[in-house]
Amino acid sequence: MARVFTVICDGCPDTAEHSADGIIRVGLAGQWRELDVCETGEKNVRATIGTWLEKGRALTGKPGGQKVIARPASGPLVPTEKAKKIRLWAATSGIRVTPRGRIPAEIVTKYDAEMATQA
Fold first, then answer.
1. CATH number of the domain to which 4 belongs
2. For the CA atoms of the chain, what is the radius of gyration?
3. How many CB atoms lie within 10 A of CB 87?
4. Do 5 and 38 fall into the same domain?
5. What is the pLDDT along the chain (119 residues), one digit of tens a residue?
6. What DSSP assignment string belongs to 83-112?
7. How far, in Å, CA of 102 to CA of 106, rounded?
8. What range defines the domain where residue 93 resides?
């Protein structure tokens, strides 16, 4: 059975129900909304919000004013073959290491120190 959906315009002052042609994404104080709008509704929303946008400052980062924080890597980049050896060594030594991703620097250091003593 097929279903038919009609999306009603949110952004038009016209109270008569009519279908929406597009979507506008609007954010304020970290809350985002999508408005289903017809062509007239889109013009109204853009005109109203556009006045405020012209006066504001452009921000970079995530929507909602959240700062983008770069986290340092947890460990050095290790060649794939060495990473396999470190993971095997860690498993046999009872050290927990994730099966993928970077290996913590302290584990790499412990591995290198043990391999140096065996050489």
1. 3.30.60.230
2. 28
3. 19
4. yes
5. 555 445 556 656 665 666 667 777 777 777 777 777 777 777 877 788 888 777 777 766 555 555 544 555 555 667 788 889 999 999 999 999 888 888 888 999 999 999 999 87
6. HHHHHHHHHHTT----SSSPPPHHHHHHHH
7. 12
8. 80-118
